Amino acid sequence: MKLHVFSQSPNSRKALFVNACLDLGVEAEQVDLASGDQKSAKFLALNPNGRVPVLELDDGSTLWESNAIVNRLCAEVDTALWPKSNQRYDIMRWQFWESCHWTPACSPFIAHHFFGNQDVDLGAAASQIEPFARVLDDHLSGRDWLSGSAMTTADISVAAILCYREACQYPLQAYDNIDRWMDRIETLDTWQRINPVPEPA
Ligand SMILES: N[C@@H](CCC(=O)N[C@@H](CS)C(=O)NCC(=O)O)C(=O)O
Predict the structure, then answer these.
(1) Using a 6 Å cutoff on CB, does residue 38 contact ligand 1?
(2) CA distances from 126 to 105, 108, 122, 170 (A)
(3) Ligand 1 geometric centre to CA of 93 (Å)
(4) 118 and 58, same structural domain?
(5) Is residue 199 scored above 60 in pLDDT?
(6) Tens of pLDDT along 38-53?
(7) Which domain does 69 fall in, by range?
């Protein structure tokens, strides 16, 4: 297997994090998004969406969509990150929530603080993220992890974009449960290895 990633991309980091947590040793090839490598014919043959990450499997097939990739990587071993039980539906619930609601709500802050887009309406962005932050914070009340009693790919998928929580100044300071949960994740050695402090533009 081979991963095609861009190390600064939160979606790539989901896959790199699982690879590190499980010590899978899957090779990771860089796709330089800044140079437009994702639009090359070679890369589009792997993922016609022109997005990272992509997992290239040993039979020559490819899997794109980061949340599918993290779950597929977990299937290489027996792991509590992706338990062999109906808990998978609970995990998938959070992964769909992440891609449909959470990441779109976080993205304007990345556009502004990381990519320097001055057209972003930060007030509107704060109103947009607030209800989803409330859902996440309420769910984490009295819980260490999003699903069950140990870290799963639900935590990995939802936390990924918060690698930029300081650099991108998401207005999450009032959400103590999110804060404690992220502190728990950020202290993991594997998280620190694949999430060096990002440099804003
Ligand atoms: N839903 C996709 C989103 C992938 C995605 O948007 N990746 C970004 C990096 S985080 C990308 O490749 N952007 C390149 C571009 O837009 O040209 C997933 O979860 O894998």
Answers:
(1) yes
(2) 8, 9, 6, 8
(3) 20
(4) no
(5) no
(6) 999 999 999 999 999 9
(7) 2-74
